[in-house]
Amino acid sequence: MTNLSPVSDDEAAQTEAPLDTIGLREGLVLRVDSGQYIVHADPDKNNTPQRVACTLRGNLRKKLTYSTSTSQPRRVVTSKRSHHSDAVAVGDRVRFSPIDSQTGIIIEVLPRESQFARSAFRGREQTLVTNLDQLVIVFACAEPNPDLWRLDRWIASAESSGLDILIVANKRDRVDAETAAERFKEFRDIGYRVIETSTKTNAGIEALRTELKGRISAFTGPSGVGKSSLLNVLQPGLKLATGEIGETTFKGKHTTTVRELIPLESGGWVADTPGLRQLDLLSMSRTELLQCFVEFVPYLETPCRFRNCRHLNEPDCSLKAAAAGGKISARRYESFLSLAAQTKE
């Protein structure tokens, strides 16, 4: 039998014991900022919800490897700090040990039902929000003009995570009705929900409020499209910081710097996430990416000539024929090829 030497970390090297849930409370992580986690604790025996500032139990930051002996108590063999994913994110359900009425230590993260994440530097996965019911992708009708190729990237990311998608075409007051409708037409044609909104005229605000009611949603999109302004209108008194658009570049400025889950008086929760210059997709294969362009799928039921067709330059490609025949958007097809060039084969 291999002799397994425990790690030097005293905490990690202790014999593992069943998690003692006596005295632990459960809650929802509302905010993550500089190693502190604000948890909305479930109502206690007095039916009183509260916000608790928590730190993280050391082992939750590490990837532990255990011994496999059947005759000895299970022990931690190696303990390595994880640099590839977030141990706790906004939207997580957690168990925490109260220190007093206002502070505690997160002991356990409950299984996630869904998550919205992106690829960060050096292969690290950055989890933006978890346990979502829907992803609200906000782009502007103008100032800045919508970059539909970037919107494709956001949609693909949401589809890969299995999230419901709501597209918000904000700043509707900056363009006429025909221009607004035309700029987002192909997404409506695919079947995505699109709501045109304006914080200046309140257009679409009630429709958006209805879509958010009773659900956990995350607002995401490029900088400067008005996500924080929308939330300020949806939740009066919120007073999130907002910024102006650069007059020369028409690029938005980052005004949201932390991820936070906000309760709405009308019902539901909304996460405001920092504006992203670029959303890097998580690693996926070309086949997996194809499934994220949902309108392509029916045209893949007719086999291409080659079973391993890359849908690029191969003859008798069913997808290429669908694009050429106007059955799918030629622009979306080109967008797929652009993203596919960045995927693993």
Description:
- The chain has 345 residues and is α/β, with parallel strands linked by helices.
- It has three domains: 10-109, OB fold (Dihydrolipoamide Acetyltransferase, E2P), CATH 2.40.50; 115-272, Rossmann fold; 286-340, Orthogonal Bundle (Ribonucleotide Reductase Protein R1, domain 1), CATH 1.10.40.50.
- Helices cover 21% and strands 26% of the residues.
- The protein has nine helices and 15 strands.
- The protein has helices at residues 10-13, 148-160, 177-183, 185-190, 205-212, 227-234, 286-292, 318-324, 330-340; strands at 25-33, 36-41, 50-56, 62-66, 76-81, 93-98, 103-109, 115-119, 125-130, 134-140, 164-170, 193-196, 216-220, 259-263, 269-272.
- The protein has a five-stranded mixed beta barrel. The chain has a two-stranded antiparallel sheet with strand order 4-5.
- Helix 2 (148-160) links the parallel strand 10 and strand 11.
- Helix 2 (148-160) crosses helix 7 (286-292).
- The longest helix is centred in the middle third of the chain and has 13 residues, at 148-160.
- The two termini are 41 Å apart.
- Mean pLDDT is 81; it is low at 1-18, 63-67, 76-84 and 243-257.
Which terms summarize this structure?
two-stranded antiparallel ribbon, alpha/beta, disordered N terminus, five-stranded mixed barrel, Rossmann fold, OB fold (Dihydrolipoamide Acetyltransferase, E2P), Ribonucleotide Reductase Protein R1, domain 1
